[in-house]
Amino acid sequence: MNSKPRIVEVRQNVLKHNDEVARALRQRFHNAGVFVVSLVSSPGAGKTAFLEKTLTRLKQRDLRPAALVGDLATDHDAARLARSQAPVKQITTGTLCHLEAAMIQQALEEWNLEELDFLFIENVGNLVCPSSYDLGENLRLVLLSVTEGEDKPLKYPTIFNTADVAVVTKIDLAEAVEFNWAQTNANLQAVRRDMPVIQVSAKTGQGMDEWMAFLASASRSADRTPRG
Amino acid sequence: MNSKPRIVEVRQNVLKHNDEVARALRQRFHNAGVFVVSLVSSPGAGKTAFLEKTLTRLKQRDLRPAALVGDLATDHDAARLARSQAPVKQITTGTLCHLEAAMIQQALEEWNLEELDFLFIENVGNLVCPSSYDLGENLRLVLLSVTEGEDKPLKYPTIFNTADVAVVTKIDLAEAVEFNWAQTNANLQAVRRDMPVIQVSAKTGQGMDEWMAFLASASRSADRTPRG
Fold this sequence. Notes:
The first copy, chain A, is built from eight helices and seven strands. Chain A is of the alpha/beta class.
Protein backbone atom coordinates (compact mmCIF):
# COMPACT_ATOMS: atom_id res chain seq x y z
CA MET A 1 0.00 0.00 0.00
CA ASN A 2 1.91 3.04 -1.23
CA SER A 3 -0.77 5.39 0.03
CA LYS A 4 0.04 4.66 3.70
CA PRO A 5 2.89 7.15 4.29
CA ARG A 6 0.94 9.83 2.45
CA ILE A 7 -2.05 9.49 4.78
CA VAL A 8 0.18 9.80 7.80
CA GLU A 9 1.77 12.92 6.38
CA VAL A 10 -1.56 14.59 5.56
CA ARG A 11 -2.90 13.60 8.97
CA GLN A 12 0.06 15.19 10.71
CA ASN A 13 -0.51 18.42 8.80
CA VAL A 14 -4.16 18.43 9.82
CA LEU A 15 -3.25 17.82 13.45
CA LYS A 16 -0.57 20.51 13.39
CA HIS A 17 -3.05 23.01 11.96
CA ASN A 18 -5.63 21.95 14.56
CA ASP A 19 -3.12 22.49 17.38
CA GLU A 20 -2.42 26.01 16.18
CA VAL A 21 -6.11 26.93 16.06
CA ALA A 22 -6.65 25.29 19.46
CA ARG A 23 -3.80 27.30 20.98
CA ALA A 24 -5.33 30.55 19.74
CA LEU A 25 -8.74 29.50 21.08
CA ARG A 26 -7.27 28.67 24.49
CA GLN A 27 -5.75 32.12 24.68
CA ARG A 28 -9.07 33.72 23.71
CA PHE A 29 -10.94 31.72 26.34
CA HIS A 30 -8.38 32.75 28.95
CA ASN A 31 -8.60 36.43 28.04
CA ALA A 32 -12.40 36.32 28.19
CA GLY A 33 -12.36 34.49 31.54
CA VAL A 34 -14.41 31.56 30.31
CA PHE A 35 -13.73 28.04 31.59
CA VAL A 36 -14.06 25.42 28.85
CA VAL A 37 -14.94 21.77 29.34
CA SER A 38 -15.14 19.23 26.51
CA LEU A 39 -17.15 16.02 26.87
CA VAL A 40 -16.28 12.76 25.13
CA SER A 41 -17.89 9.33 25.39
CA SER A 42 -19.40 6.55 23.32
CA PRO A 43 -22.83 7.14 21.81
CA GLY A 44 -25.54 6.85 24.45
CA ALA A 45 -23.33 7.21 27.51
CA GLY A 46 -25.47 10.14 28.63
CA LYS A 47 -23.45 13.24 27.67
CA THR A 48 -26.53 15.31 26.82
CA ALA A 49 -28.56 14.41 29.92
CA PHE A 50 -25.54 15.11 32.14
CA LEU A 51 -24.85 18.39 30.36
CA GLU A 52 -28.48 19.53 30.54
CA LYS A 53 -28.44 19.09 34.34
CA THR A 54 -25.10 20.87 34.57
CA LEU A 55 -26.30 23.87 32.54
CA THR A 56 -29.50 24.10 34.59
CA ARG A 57 -27.60 24.03 37.89
CA LEU A 58 -25.13 26.69 36.75
CA LYS A 59 -28.01 28.92 35.60
CA GLN A 60 -29.66 28.49 39.02
CA ARG A 61 -26.47 29.85 40.59
CA ASP A 62 -26.61 32.91 38.31
CA LEU A 63 -23.61 31.74 36.35
CA ARG A 64 -23.50 32.08 32.56
CA PRO A 65 -22.91 28.74 30.81
CA ALA A 66 -23.20 27.98 27.09
CA ALA A 67 -22.80 24.84 25.02
CA LEU A 68 -21.67 23.69 21.60
CA VAL A 69 -22.74 20.22 20.57
CA GLY A 70 -21.35 18.09 17.76
CA ASP A 71 -23.27 15.42 15.88
CA LEU A 72 -23.04 13.77 12.47
CA ALA A 73 -26.68 14.58 11.81
CA THR A 74 -29.76 15.97 13.64
CA ASP A 75 -29.98 18.85 16.11
CA HIS A 76 -31.90 16.92 18.79
CA ASP A 77 -29.18 17.40 21.37
CA ALA A 78 -29.11 21.17 20.92
CA ALA A 79 -32.90 21.24 21.36
CA ARG A 80 -32.62 19.20 24.57
CA LEU A 81 -29.86 21.41 25.96
CA ALA A 82 -31.71 24.60 25.07
CA ARG A 83 -34.36 23.67 27.66
CA SER A 84 -31.80 24.82 30.26
CA GLN A 85 -32.17 28.38 28.84
CA ALA A 86 -28.42 28.52 28.20
CA PRO A 87 -27.20 29.55 24.73
CA VAL A 88 -26.62 26.39 22.67
CA LYS A 89 -25.32 25.84 19.16
CA GLN A 90 -25.29 22.63 17.14
CA ILE A 91 -22.29 21.73 14.98
CA THR A 92 -23.20 19.16 12.32
CA THR A 93 -20.13 17.23 11.22
CA GLY A 94 -21.58 15.19 8.35
CA THR A 95 -19.46 12.05 8.20
CA LEU A 96 -16.66 13.30 10.47
CA CYS A 97 -16.44 11.43 13.78
CA HIS A 98 -14.94 14.26 15.86
CA LEU A 99 -14.96 18.02 16.30
CA GLU A 100 -11.97 20.13 15.28
CA ALA A 101 -10.74 23.43 16.72
CA ALA A 102 -11.67 25.31 13.52
CA MET A 103 -15.30 24.22 13.90
CA ILE A 104 -15.32 25.63 17.44
CA GLN A 105 -13.79 28.87 16.21
CA GLN A 106 -16.45 29.20 13.53
CA ALA A 107 -19.35 28.30 15.83
CA LEU A 108 -18.25 30.99 18.30
CA GLU A 109 -18.21 33.78 15.71
CA GLU A 110 -21.54 35.28 16.75
CA TRP A 111 -21.05 34.87 20.49
CA ASN A 112 -19.43 37.33 22.85
CA LEU A 113 -17.21 35.21 25.07
CA GLU A 114 -17.00 38.02 27.65
CA GLU A 115 -20.61 37.27 28.49
CA LEU A 116 -19.88 33.64 29.42
CA ASP A 117 -18.46 31.96 32.53
CA PHE A 118 -18.49 28.37 31.25
CA LEU A 119 -18.45 26.84 27.78
CA PHE A 120 -19.18 23.15 27.33
CA ILE A 121 -18.28 21.37 24.11
CA GLU A 122 -20.08 18.06 23.61
CA ASN A 123 -18.09 16.05 21.09
CA VAL A 124 -19.49 13.48 18.64
CA GLY A 125 -20.20 10.19 20.44
CA ASN A 126 -17.02 8.26 19.77
CA LEU A 127 -14.26 6.75 21.92
CA VAL A 128 -11.59 6.92 19.23
CA CYS A 129 -11.71 9.85 16.81
CA PRO A 130 -11.85 12.81 19.23
CA SER A 131 -8.71 11.83 21.15
CA SER A 132 -6.12 13.61 18.99
CA TYR A 133 -8.00 16.88 18.51
CA ASP A 134 -7.28 19.65 21.02
CA LEU A 135 -10.27 22.03 21.12
CA GLY A 136 -8.63 24.62 23.36
CA GLU A 137 -10.51 23.28 26.39
CA ASN A 138 -9.32 23.61 30.00
CA LEU A 139 -10.72 20.26 31.00
CA ARG A 140 -11.47 17.13 29.01
CA LEU A 141 -14.14 15.01 30.62
CA VAL A 142 -14.72 11.41 29.56
CA LEU A 143 -18.07 9.81 30.40
CA LEU A 144 -18.60 6.09 30.84
CA SER A 145 -21.99 4.61 31.63
CA VAL A 146 -22.38 1.67 34.02
CA THR A 147 -24.14 -0.21 31.21
CA GLU A 148 -21.08 -0.18 28.94
CA GLY A 149 -18.95 -2.59 30.94
CA GLU A 150 -15.90 -2.19 33.14
CA ASP A 151 -13.35 -2.89 30.40
CA LYS A 152 -13.77 0.25 28.29
CA PRO A 153 -10.76 2.19 29.70
CA LEU A 154 -8.47 -0.72 28.74
CA LYS A 155 -10.04 -1.09 25.30
CA TYR A 156 -9.92 2.63 24.42
CA PRO A 157 -6.81 3.70 26.34
CA THR A 158 -5.99 6.82 24.30
CA ILE A 159 -9.22 8.67 24.94
CA PHE A 160 -9.15 7.84 28.66
CA ASN A 161 -5.49 8.73 28.86
CA THR A 162 -6.05 12.19 27.38
CA ALA A 163 -8.96 12.99 29.73
CA ASP A 164 -8.62 15.03 32.93
CA VAL A 165 -11.61 13.63 34.76
CA ALA A 166 -13.93 10.64 34.33
CA VAL A 167 -17.64 10.69 35.06
CA VAL A 168 -19.40 7.35 35.51
CA THR A 169 -23.02 7.88 34.44
CA LYS A 170 -26.35 6.09 34.94
CA ILE A 171 -25.25 4.99 38.41
CA ASP A 172 -28.94 4.40 39.21
CA LEU A 173 -28.67 1.32 36.94
CA ALA A 174 -25.54 -0.02 38.68
CA GLU A 175 -27.34 -2.81 40.48
CA ALA A 176 -29.45 -3.91 37.49
CA VAL A 177 -26.31 -4.36 35.36
CA GLU A 178 -24.16 -5.75 38.20
CA PHE A 179 -21.73 -2.90 37.73
CA ASN A 180 -18.32 -3.52 39.31
CA TRP A 181 -17.09 -0.16 40.59
CA ALA A 182 -13.77 -1.41 42.00
CA GLN A 183 -12.85 -3.00 38.68
CA THR A 184 -13.86 0.08 36.68
CA ASN A 185 -11.87 2.39 38.91
CA ALA A 186 -8.84 0.09 38.75
CA ASN A 187 -9.05 0.07 34.94
CA LEU A 188 -9.36 3.86 34.83
CA GLN A 189 -6.36 4.29 37.12
CA ALA A 190 -4.40 1.77 35.03
CA VAL A 191 -4.63 3.96 31.92
CA ARG A 192 -4.56 7.33 33.73
CA ARG A 193 -3.02 7.32 37.17
CA ASP A 194 -4.75 9.53 39.78
CA MET A 195 -7.65 10.38 37.44
CA PRO A 196 -10.48 11.89 39.47
CA VAL A 197 -13.65 9.84 39.01
CA ILE A 198 -17.16 11.02 39.85
CA GLN A 199 -20.22 8.74 39.86
CA VAL A 200 -23.45 10.43 38.83
CA SER A 201 -27.04 9.84 37.84
CA ALA A 202 -28.62 12.60 35.76
CA LYS A 203 -31.94 10.88 36.48
CA THR A 204 -31.82 10.89 40.29
CA GLY A 205 -29.32 13.73 40.70
CA GLN A 206 -26.92 11.52 42.64
CA GLY A 207 -23.35 12.81 42.49
CA MET A 208 -24.27 16.10 40.82
CA ASP A 209 -23.30 18.12 43.91
CA GLU A 210 -19.89 16.50 43.90
CA TRP A 211 -19.51 17.26 40.18
CA MET A 212 -20.51 20.91 40.65
CA ALA A 213 -17.97 21.27 43.46
CA PHE A 214 -15.28 19.69 41.28
CA LEU A 215 -16.13 22.04 38.41
CA ALA A 216 -16.04 25.13 40.64
CA SER A 217 -12.69 24.12 42.06
CA ALA A 218 -11.22 23.35 38.61
CA SER A 219 -12.37 26.70 37.21
CA ARG A 220 -10.92 28.57 40.20
CA SER A 221 -7.52 26.97 39.80
CA ALA A 222 -7.58 27.72 36.04
CA ASP A 223 -7.96 31.42 36.89
CA ARG A 224 -4.66 31.30 38.72
CA THR A 225 -2.79 29.42 36.01
CA PRO A 226 -1.08 31.56 33.41
CA ARG A 227 -1.37 30.18 29.89
CA GLY A 228 0.04 31.06 26.50
CA MET B 1 -7.21 24.43 4.19
CA ASN B 2 -5.35 23.25 1.08
CA SER B 3 -4.97 19.75 2.48
CA LYS B 4 -8.71 19.01 2.25
CA PRO B 5 -8.96 17.76 -1.36
CA ARG B 6 -5.86 15.67 -0.85
CA ILE B 7 -7.36 13.82 2.09
CA VAL B 8 -10.45 13.00 0.10
CA GLU B 9 -8.35 11.67 -2.74
CA VAL B 10 -6.23 9.46 -0.52
CA ARG B 11 -9.33 8.22 1.28
CA GLN B 12 -10.95 7.26 -1.99
CA ASN B 13 -7.88 5.27 -2.97
CA VAL B 14 -7.93 3.45 0.35
CA LEU B 15 -11.63 2.67 -0.01
CA LYS B 16 -11.18 1.49 -3.59
CA HIS B 17 -8.38 -0.84 -2.52
CA ASN B 18 -10.54 -2.08 0.37
CA ASP B 19 -13.43 -2.83 -1.97
CA GLU B 20 -11.18 -4.93 -4.21
CA VAL B 21 -9.90 -6.99 -1.30
CA ALA B 22 -13.45 -7.34 0.05
CA ARG B 23 -14.71 -8.58 -3.31
CA ALA B 24 -12.02 -11.28 -3.41
CA LEU B 25 -12.85 -12.27 0.17
CA ARG B 26 -16.56 -12.52 -0.62
CA GLN B 27 -15.79 -14.88 -3.50
CA ARG B 28 -13.56 -17.00 -1.25
CA PHE B 29 -16.27 -17.20 1.42
CA HIS B 30 -18.81 -18.22 -1.19
CA ASN B 31 -16.56 -20.91 -2.65
CA ALA B 32 -15.88 -22.32 0.81
CA GLY B 33 -19.59 -22.25 1.71
CA VAL B 34 -19.10 -20.09 4.79
CA PHE B 35 -21.72 -17.51 5.76
CA VAL B 36 -20.16 -14.31 7.09
CA VAL B 37 -21.76 -11.85 9.50
CA SER B 38 -20.12 -8.63 10.65
CA LEU B 39 -21.19 -6.91 13.87
CA VAL B 40 -21.03 -3.16 14.43
CA SER B 41 -22.20 -1.04 17.37
CA SER B 42 -21.04 1.56 19.84
CA PRO B 43 -18.69 0.44 22.61
CA GLY B 44 -20.54 -1.47 25.29
CA ALA B 45 -23.67 -2.29 23.27
CA GLY B 46 -23.09 -5.95 23.98
CA LYS B 47 -21.53 -7.33 20.78
CA THR B 48 -19.29 -9.80 22.61
CA ALA B 49 -21.97 -11.16 24.96
CA PHE B 50 -24.38 -11.59 22.05
CA LEU B 51 -21.72 -13.25 19.93
CA GLU B 52 -20.63 -15.61 22.70
CA LYS B 53 -24.22 -16.89 23.03
CA THR B 54 -24.52 -17.20 19.26
CA LEU B 55 -21.31 -19.22 18.95
CA THR B 56 -22.35 -21.50 21.81
CA ARG B 57 -25.77 -22.16 20.29
CA LEU B 58 -24.29 -22.93 16.85
CA LYS B 59 -21.78 -25.33 18.42
CA GLN B 60 -24.65 -27.08 20.24
CA ARG B 61 -26.26 -27.69 16.85
CA ASP B 62 -23.05 -29.25 15.55
CA LEU B 63 -22.40 -26.32 13.27
CA ARG B 64 -18.89 -24.91 12.84
CA PRO B 65 -18.68 -21.19 13.68
CA ALA B 66 -15.57 -19.07 14.13
CA ALA B 67 -14.97 -15.43 15.03
CA LEU B 68 -12.57 -12.59 14.35
CA VAL B 69 -12.70 -9.69 16.78
CA GLY B 70 -11.26 -6.21 16.33
CA ASP B 71 -10.13 -3.93 19.13
CA LEU B 72 -7.74 -1.00 19.48
CA ALA B 73 -6.04 -2.75 22.37
CA THR B 74 -6.45 -5.83 24.63
CA ASP B 75 -7.55 -9.35 23.71
CA HIS B 76 -10.27 -9.63 26.38
CA ASP B 77 -13.03 -10.15 23.84
CA ALA B 78 -11.22 -13.01 22.11
CA ALA B 79 -10.72 -14.67 25.50
CA ARG B 80 -14.44 -14.29 26.29
CA LEU B 81 -15.50 -15.68 22.91
CA ALA B 82 -13.08 -18.60 23.16
CA ARG B 83 -15.18 -19.96 26.06
CA SER B 84 -17.65 -21.06 23.38
CA GLN B 85 -14.97 -23.52 22.10
CA ALA B 86 -15.19 -21.94 18.62
CA PRO B 87 -11.95 -20.82 16.92
CA VAL B 88 -11.40 -17.14 17.68
CA LYS B 89 -8.73 -14.67 16.60
CA GLN B 90 -8.12 -11.14 17.88
CA ILE B 91 -7.18 -8.34 15.47
CA THR B 92 -5.56 -5.42 17.27
CA THR B 93 -5.99 -2.21 15.30
CA GLY B 94 -3.83 0.16 17.37
CA THR B 95 -5.35 3.59 16.81
CA LEU B 96 -7.57 2.62 13.87
CA CYS B 97 -11.30 2.81 14.64
CA HIS B 98 -12.44 0.15 12.15
CA LEU B 99 -11.44 -3.14 10.55
CA GLU B 100 -10.41 -3.29 6.89
CA ALA B 101 -10.75 -6.16 4.42
CA ALA B 102 -6.96 -6.65 4.29
CA MET B 103 -6.90 -7.28 8.06
CA ILE B 104 -9.53 -9.98 7.63
CA GLN B 105 -7.56 -11.53 4.79
CA GLN B 106 -4.42 -11.64 6.91
CA ALA B 107 -6.19 -12.98 10.01
CA LEU B 108 -7.65 -15.85 7.97
CA GLU B 109 -4.29 -17.00 6.60
CA GLU B 110 -3.91 -19.93 8.99
CA TRP B 111 -7.53 -21.04 8.88
CA ASN B 112 -9.10 -23.47 6.47
CA LEU B 113 -12.40 -21.87 5.47
CA GLU B 114 -13.72 -25.19 4.18
CA GLU B 115 -13.95 -26.31 7.81
CA LEU B 116 -16.30 -23.47 8.77
CA ASP B 117 -20.05 -22.90 8.37
CA PHE B 118 -20.22 -19.42 9.89
CA LEU B 119 -17.67 -16.66 10.37
CA PHE B 120 -18.49 -13.70 12.62
CA ILE B 121 -16.46 -10.51 12.43
CA GLU B 122 -16.84 -8.27 15.48
CA ASN B 123 -15.77 -4.77 14.44
CA VAL B 124 -14.21 -2.12 16.70
CA GLY B 125 -16.89 -0.48 18.85
CA ASN B 126 -17.74 2.60 16.79
CA LEU B 127 -20.86 3.93 15.07
CA VAL B 128 -18.99 5.96 12.46
CA CYS B 129 -15.69 4.57 11.20
CA PRO B 130 -16.73 1.03 10.15
CA SER B 131 -19.55 2.18 7.84
CA SER B 132 -17.51 2.63 4.64
CA TYR B 133 -15.43 -0.55 4.88
CA ASP B 134 -16.81 -3.63 3.17
CA LEU B 135 -15.34 -6.75 4.81
CA GLY B 136 -16.76 -9.22 2.30
CA GLU B 137 -19.55 -10.15 4.71
CA ASN B 138 -22.96 -11.54 3.66
CA LEU B 139 -24.78 -9.75 6.43
CA ARG B 140 -23.99 -6.61 8.37
CA LEU B 141 -25.62 -6.58 11.77
CA VAL B 142 -25.89 -3.40 13.82
CA LEU B 143 -26.47 -3.68 17.56
CA LEU B 144 -28.14 -1.03 19.68
CA SER B 145 -28.65 -1.44 23.41
CA VAL B 146 -31.81 -0.21 25.14
CA THR B 147 -29.59 1.89 27.43
CA GLU B 148 -28.24 4.01 24.54
CA GLY B 149 -31.42 5.91 23.77
CA GLU B 150 -33.94 5.76 20.96
CA ASP B 151 -32.30 8.49 18.83
CA LYS B 152 -29.14 6.66 17.74
CA PRO B 153 -30.36 5.60 14.26
CA LEU B 154 -31.11 9.25 13.42
CA LYS B 155 -27.79 10.47 14.85
CA TYR B 156 -25.65 7.85 13.08
CA PRO B 157 -27.67 7.29 9.89
CA THR B 158 -24.84 5.93 7.72
CA ILE B 159 -24.01 2.92 9.84
CA PHE B 160 -27.68 2.02 10.31
CA ASN B 161 -28.36 2.56 6.63
CA THR B 162 -25.58 0.16 5.57
CA ALA B 163 -26.75 -2.59 7.95
CA ASP B 164 -28.94 -5.53 6.90
CA VAL B 165 -30.44 -6.29 10.30
CA ALA B 166 -30.65 -4.53 13.65
CA VAL B 167 -30.44 -6.28 17.00
CA VAL B 168 -31.70 -4.39 20.06
CA THR B 169 -29.71 -5.72 23.03
CA LYS B 170 -30.09 -5.72 26.84
CA ILE B 171 -33.85 -5.92 26.46
CA ASP B 172 -33.97 -7.15 30.09
CA LEU B 173 -33.15 -3.55 31.08
CA ALA B 174 -35.91 -2.02 28.93
CA GLU B 175 -38.18 -1.21 31.84
CA ALA B 176 -35.43 0.20 34.08
CA VAL B 177 -34.39 2.68 31.37
CA GLU B 178 -37.95 3.39 30.18
CA PHE B 179 -37.01 2.15 26.72
CA ASN B 180 -39.44 3.25 23.99
CA TRP B 181 -39.61 0.40 21.48
CA ALA B 182 -42.09 2.06 19.09
CA GLN B 183 -39.90 5.17 18.81
CA THR B 184 -36.74 3.12 18.30
CA ASN B 185 -38.32 1.01 15.60
CA ALA B 186 -39.73 4.10 13.86
CA ASN B 187 -36.25 5.70 13.89
CA LEU B 188 -34.68 2.51 12.51
CA GLN B 189 -37.24 2.29 9.71
CA ALA B 190 -36.76 6.01 8.97
CA VAL B 191 -33.09 5.47 8.09
CA ARG B 192 -33.48 1.96 6.63
CA ARG B 193 -36.94 1.03 5.42
CA ASP B 194 -38.04 -2.56 6.13
CA MET B 195 -34.97 -3.31 8.24
CA PRO B 196 -35.59 -6.49 10.24
CA VAL B 197 -35.21 -5.79 13.96
CA ILE B 198 -34.74 -8.44 16.64
CA GLN B 199 -34.91 -7.72 20.37
CA VAL B 200 -32.61 -9.87 22.51
CA SER B 201 -31.13 -10.30 25.94
CA ALA B 202 -27.89 -12.25 26.07
CA LYS B 203 -28.42 -12.40 29.84
CA THR B 204 -31.87 -14.03 29.91
CA GLY B 205 -31.75 -15.61 26.45
CA GLN B 206 -34.88 -13.72 25.33
CA GLY B 207 -35.05 -13.37 21.54
CA MET B 208 -32.11 -15.69 20.87
CA ASP B 209 -34.37 -18.33 19.25
CA GLU B 210 -35.72 -15.70 16.89
CA TRP B 211 -32.18 -14.57 16.06
CA MET B 212 -31.02 -18.16 15.38
CA ALA B 213 -34.00 -18.71 13.06
CA PHE B 214 -33.22 -15.46 11.24
CA LEU B 215 -29.56 -16.47 10.85
CA ALA B 216 -30.45 -19.93 9.54
CA SER B 217 -32.85 -18.45 7.02
CA ALA B 218 -30.38 -15.77 5.87
CA SER B 219 -27.60 -18.34 5.39
CA ARG B 220 -29.92 -20.63 3.41
CA SER B 221 -30.95 -17.87 1.02
CA ALA B 222 -27.28 -16.86 0.59
CA ASP B 223 -26.57 -20.40 -0.64
CA ARG B 224 -29.02 -19.85 -3.46
CA THR B 225 -27.70 -16.43 -4.43
CA PRO B 226 -24.93 -16.40 -7.03
CA ARG B 227 -22.21 -13.87 -6.30
CA GLY B 228 -19.13 -12.59 -8.07
